[in-house]
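Technical annex B. To support the medicinal chemistry partners, we prepared a structural model of the target in complex with fe (ii) ion, based solely on the information shown next.
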Amino acid sequence: MARIVPVLDLSRLEQGASEQRTFLFDLRTAARDVGFFYLSGHGISAAEIEEVLDASRRFFALAEADKLAIEMVKSSQFRGYTRAGGELTKGKADWREQLDIGVERPPIPQGPGVPAWTRLQGPNQWPASLPELKPALLAWQAKATAVAIRLLKAFALSLDQSEDAFDPIYRGEPNHRMKIVRYPGRHSTGDDQGVGAHKDGGFLTLLLQDDNKGLQVDYDRSWVNVDPLPGTLVVNIGELLELASNGYLRATIHRVVTPPAGAERISIPFFFSARLDATIPLLALPEELATETRGPASDPDNPLFRDVGTNVLKSRLRSHPDVARRHYSDLLATGAAPV
Ligand SMILES: O=C(O)CCC(=O)C(=O)O
Ligand SMILES: [Fe+2]
């Protein structure tokens, strides 16, 4: 039986016109059918992969006090450490500890008429006792950004758009976010929800997983395992790309099941998104694709906005109520928060 989640080799893009054409077809098919695929041929070496996984393991091995010194609740930009059980998906605790890192930029001065999402821009929090973590994660950000941009150009071509159709939404100030995540084994959690069922909010997610299982995607209403394949990244479509393609491409629901007792799992999701000041365009698809669009799957509990900053702020406030209470109580009190 063919794999449900296929493996695509990005280097086929550079192997001549005919290979490129079949690659784009395979890419579009995978992103439309299951919304998840493994990516090989991305140019990131096994040594670079090991290096960022190692740095992440060293972070989680730090004393709890060192990690709590950079707790996310101290950051109005939702950056920093969250202990296991501290993040919610659909109101229920996720059993994973994680460090959230965004783009390193200065905060935007606040004042009347400045939109609330501008508060999301600002610095990261880095652990004082592990100085090598910052260069390791910033290097990973740069590599993942380059792969994500190559993929986005390929997606544009595969939808019969010009290769730079998506440039305006990331050019100059690409916006992305990453996490390093550790899922503890079952004996130390209260539940088997590593992370609850959800869709990703950005354009594309590039996920690096270590060699422990746990990731599952919803395919035809059953859970399909996306077990680790060494050397690959797992790519999935986010809600913004689903929105731009009017539902032609699928932002698939996925979750992580807690590893068995005694095991732990490390993963590094990289969420490539759009500039916070961007508005998501609706692509004009050629007739044969347009007739196959499904419209973005709308969740009445979670309306999607074409304004990127508003979308991002909404999902951050939902996921991290402690940060919302500490730093955004003015918005929550006036009902101005888009939650
Ligand atoms: O850890 C993983 O494998 C996936 C994590 C995930 O889906 C997320 O953080 O959005
Ligand atoms: Fe996800």
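Notes passed to the chemistry partners:
The chain has nine helices and 14 strands.
The chain has a mean pLDDT of 92.
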